[in-house]
Amino acid sequence: MTGLHSHPRRRTVGAVAAAAALALTATLAPSGAATATPQPAGPTQAASNGRPVDVMTRNLYLGADLGPVIATLTTNPAGVPAAAAQTWAKVVATNPPERMAAVAEEIAAARPAVVGLQEVTEWTTYAVYNPITGETAGANEVYDFLDLLLEALEEEGVAYHEVTGATANNFASGPIAVPSATSPTTLGAVGMADRDVIIRRADVTVDEDSAVAGTFQNIIRFPVRNPFTGQTTLLPVTRGWGSVDVRTNRTEFRFVNAHLEAFGIPGVNAEDLRVLQVGELLAAQEAIAQDDPLSTVYVGDYNSDAPDGPAYQLLVSSVGSDAWSVTNLKDPGYTCCFDAAVTDDTSTLDERIDLVVVDSGVQPIHADVIGEELGDMTESGLWPSDHAGVLARLVVAGQRGGPTG
Fold it and tell me: Which end of the chain is more exposed for a tag (fewer CB within 10 A), N or C?
């Protein structure tokens, strides 16, 4: 869902200062940008002449709701160490290694050619932190979700690899003070980094020269005051996308993975921001397609509730069709969201924000929601993520006769 707030309900953080709204407003493009509907260039071949390929989108869930920490940074900086320590304890409680192993089981069972991953998080702790200088010591990368997932996939007997160059490096926090685990007179710290990553099955070929990633210009920036120095800075919540040309099953297509903003803040409508981000995404892909048009598949966590969300509608109307709505006429296909502790029941899923959207060169023939059945929970009773994922079988128009994968 988000690099900040991993439960992307359309709600605001009431404690965030009004200055945050002003900071965001200054980043938004002129109003005309929100209504632009660029049409990505693409082939017009009938997909019925093509070959089937399976793709997946999966949000890995960073492990905790960061809203309380952000609110504390903004309104009560002296309370940050306690709030950050509570958040870190919740990340540990949601057991990333166990959850990534469960996601690996899903992927290994389906064996999609490519997977778009969101909230591919790195969590690092620091034994010592100086809040005045920002210096740290004793860094320990506790969890790297990508490493955990790829290692678990190998244990499942199927190899996947990160597509180098198609990873979007999104929101990253600097060290945030927590009480030291060893001394009451010193502070430790915890920090995180959020990425969007495309992985490919080992026997699937990608054009490495085509791999590209970008971040959005229209983002939220939270004002944060350091209680030790009194200095106020803006904390950017970066979101992004990645894309690559995939060659498999004697066909070729462009695969795009993206993660749009989930947060709303006082005075700013998060859906308006997502519309602007969709416009940026479409413009970037249109520029790529001008030099090399290919059938294109968009996946990701778009945080815009289908079928009525304006950002969702802009994406689908500009690209072509939604694989879920084409293949599941009566099933709502909810993918969001379990609670922050990922221990609740399936009744909390009431939004569809994880999408597979395709252009006219691609025909969806089947789509499944994954990770939402009780049997998908881990042995300790955790959902693999606070989202469900989407697995889609597509028929892609044959184009270049790439290697079989």
Answer: C
Measured CA to CA, the distance from residue 95 to residue 189 in angstroms comes to 19
pLDDT score at 219: 93
Question: Closest by alpha carbon to 50, among 373, 391, 359?
Answer: 359
Question: Residue 1: is its pLDDT beyond 90?
Answer: no
Share of the chain above pLDDT 90, in %: 68
The SS3 call for residue 385 is: coil
What pLDDT, on the 0 to 100 scale, is given for residue 39? 41
What digits encode the pLDDT tens for the residues 98-129? 999 999 999 999 999 999 999 999 999 999 99
Distance CA 92, CA 64 (A): 9
Return d(Cα 7, Cα 112) in angstroms, integer: 26
**371 within some domain:** yes
CATH number of the domain bearing residue 254: 3.60.10
Q: How many domains does the chain have?
A: 1
Roughly what angle, to the nearest 10 degrees, separates helices 96-110 and 145-155?
50
357 contacts 339 by C-beta, under 8 angstroms:
no
Domain that holds residue 293: 18-77+106-120+203-396
Query: Residue 226's CB: how many other CB atoms inside 10 A?
Result: 16
Residue 12 lies in a domain: no
Can you tell me which residue has the tokens 């160490």? 81
DSSP label at residue 249: T
Strand positions, DSSP E, 173-231: 176-179, 187-201, 205-215, 220-225
Distance CA 119, CA 197 (A): 9
Model confidence at 48, pLDDT cuts 50, 70, 90, reads low
Residue 185 near residue 138 (C-beta atoms within 8 A)? no
Query: What is the mean pLDDT of the segment spanning 326-344?
Result: 95
Q: Are 61 and 94 in contact (CB under 8 A)?
A: yes
Least confident residue range of 94-108, 225-239, 328-342: 225-239
Cα–Cα distance for residue pair 299/323, rounded to 1 Å: 10
pLDDT digits (tens, 9 = 90+) for 262-273: 987 767 789 999
Residue owning tokens 């927590």: 178
Name the CA dihedral angle for 24, 25, 27, 30, rounded to a multiple of 10 degrees: 150
User: Does 311 map to a domain?
Assistant: yes
Cβ count within 10 A of residue 91? 19
